[in-house]
Each structure stands twice: as C-alpha cells, then as structure tokens.
Specification:
mainly alpha, 276 residues, two-stranded antiparallel sheet
C-alpha cells in the first residue's frame, strides 16, 4: 500500500528463477519442496511455461553446457488497481485537505465576487481564476494515473464545474456508472455530471429571470435618475458580456460531457433509458 501511495506503478512483476525448471517445464527434483507449496492439483502433471522450456530443450541438445536462454526470460505480472486506503495517515490528511479547501474555494469565489462588485473594477480577475481552476480540475481525467492521494488535491477544484456534493440528487440510478476508469478514480460518476449540467441549466434560467426583472424595473423608472443610469449600465453588461461569459464557464463541461457521451454510445453503452 505504501508503494501505491508514493508511486504510480500499478503492475506487480514476478520473475521465475530459470534454474528451478527443467526443459520439460517441471520443477527439478532438488526444488520439489517449492513445487509442493505452489502447485494446486496434481503436481506431477503441472508444467510451467512449456513452450519456453521446450525451446531450451532444442538448444540444450546443441550446447554441451546447456541452454537457459528462454527460461531466463520467464516472468509474469498482475495489474493491481489503485487503492484508496483512507485509514492511511497520508491519505486521511489529503482527504481532510480536500474537504477544507472545497469550503475555502466556495467562500473565496463568493467574497471576491462581492468585493469586485463593490469596488466596481470589473470581474475579469475572478473569471480568469475560475477558468484556470476549471482546467486544473480536469487534469485527473486525462489518460494517465496519479498517485492515489493526489486525486484529493484536485477534487476541490470541481466546485468550479458545479460539482457541489458527494452524492447526486438527479439520475441517482447512475451513481455507479463512470465514463472510464479515470472518472472512477476521481469519484466523478455520470450522476454527478448530470447534476452539474442541471445546475448550469438552472443558472441560465436564473440569468434570464434576473435580466427580465431588471429590464422591467428599468422601463418603469426615470432613465435619467441615478438608479436608471445604474440599471442601464447593468443591462448593457447582460447584452454584451454576461451570457457570453456564462457560456464560456459552461463550455468545458458541455464539451467533455458531450464527447464522452458520444464515445459511450459508440461503445454500445446506450442500453438503458437513463443512458439514452
């Protein structure tokens, strides 16, 4: 487990000493005590890597010193999936880090938004910060694997994709479905992505409602008054900036979800009404 915490390697290689086997693939007589502890079933009929051993038998007949060329190359490996053991102190620390940073980022984005609005200096700093956070949040989804505890380092950034809860409240029947293994390592199931898209849709509806309310108020008051001038400035932002900016914030999620859904469908996974 410690090796998986500090390394990304996920294959266990087992080499077989070439001198244990004869040219027929049986354990040599001097090593029968090893055979009895390894082989299940009839030990007298179990052969190991017979093709490699037979190749050595052919070469052995030509070489008076014997040949072990093929048996020296015998090895096997097993793929070990990444293990997320949160009882480990390091893993536990990064899990706590992820939870605390999640709340910190939520508060930081909200406070920065109101401070920039109060100072009336524009929201470019917060949009730039959120877009970079969105890019960082998708790093674990690329085609490579991280050290297990590093997934918790990136998880707080998912708040910028409106992944706000560990449990999904829409399409709950797909909480165990993932687009691929990298999404599963990241705990980003299809239900969470669907909930994120639902929240983005809700956000777009709220923007439209706010725009309509402000427009009605603007039409009902004196446009030359202080409040009228202020509302006119706000409405101009809706006309040229707000919707474009909101689309850009949703762009990564819409693109990733659409592409992965097409890949998922092409692989024949459109088998349930929820997936379709």
């Amino acid at each position: 487990m410690l090796g998986l915490l500090v390394k990304r390697s996920d294959r266990l290689y087992v080499g077989l000493k070439w001198y244990l086997l004869d040219t027929y693939g049986f354990f040599k007589e001097d090593y029968h005590w090893l055979r009895d502890g390894i082989v299940l079933g009839n030990v007298s009929e179990t052969r190991f890597y017979p093709e490699a051993c037979e190749s050595d038998r052919e070469e052995d007949a030509k070489n008076p010193l014997g040949s072990y060329t093929n048996r020296e190359k015998i090895y096997s490996y097993a793929t070990i999936p990444l293990l997320f053991d949160f009882t480990n102190p390091m893993m536990s620390y990064w899990r706590s880090y992820a939870i605390n940073v999640y709340w910190y980022l939520c508060g930081f984005v909200i406070i920065q938004f109101f401070l920039l609005a109060w100072r009336n200096v524009g929201f470019l700093p917060i949009w730039t910060m959120v877009e970079y956070m969105q890019l960082g949040a998708f790093i674990p989804l690329y085609n490579f694997r991280l050290i297990p505890y590093l997934y918790d380092v990136f998880k707080p950034l998912l708040v910028t994709h409106l992944v706000l809860t560990n449990r999904a409240y829409v399409m709950t029947d797909m909480e165990q479905d993932y687009f691929d293994i990298n999404y599963e390592y990241y705990w980003l199931n299809i239900a969470k992505l669907a909930q994120s898209l639902a929240l983005m849709t809700l956000g777009a509806v709220l923007l439209l409602i706010i725009n309509l309310v402000l427009l009605m108020v603007y039409c009902a008051i004196d446009k030359e008054s202080r409040m009228g001038i202020w509302l006119g400035d706000i409405l101009s932002q809706f006309k040229y900036n707000v919707y474009i900016r909101y689309y850009m914030l949703c762009y990564f999620d819409l693109t990733f979800f659409s592409v992965m859904k097409l890949v998922d469908a092409r692989q024949g996974n459109d088998t349930t009404p929820g997936r379709r």
